[in-house]
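Researcher: Go.
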Amino acid sequence: MGERGYIRITSDAAGVTECEALIEELDSHAGYRVTYKEMQEGMQGTTTTLLLDVSDQSIPTMRMSRHGDEVESLQDFVEGKTTKAYYKVASSDLTFAIETHRLSVFVVGNRVEVDVEAAFLFSNEQPLPFIARLEWGFL
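Model: Structure:
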């Protein structure tokens, strides 16, 4: 089910977002599932789930999925890899690639920190840099 906690996301694109989250630790520290409701304008009420897999500590992976009335998306971050992603909003579908340059995971007490450096690759456009820190912990 998960325990109550918080998530704080700091990104170059959206600034700082902090909200309540349900956090579930998976199989003997092999990863985490974090679920929360979006609060950003245009995405309010959308459910976002982060699935962080650290079973192979040399190659952590993170999947971000969103489901709501106005938004649906799926994004995978795997250090050193390029993955496919999609983002659907009310009137359009967008597919793109994510080139993850760095995905670092730190566990500090009852808090998890994830640093992401990536580029979103859209057809016929310059790569869009994405830099973020995600932090979650139990209340």
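Model: Strands lie at 3-11, 15-26, 31-37, 47-53, 61-67, 71-78, 82-89, 92-108, 111-121, 128-138.
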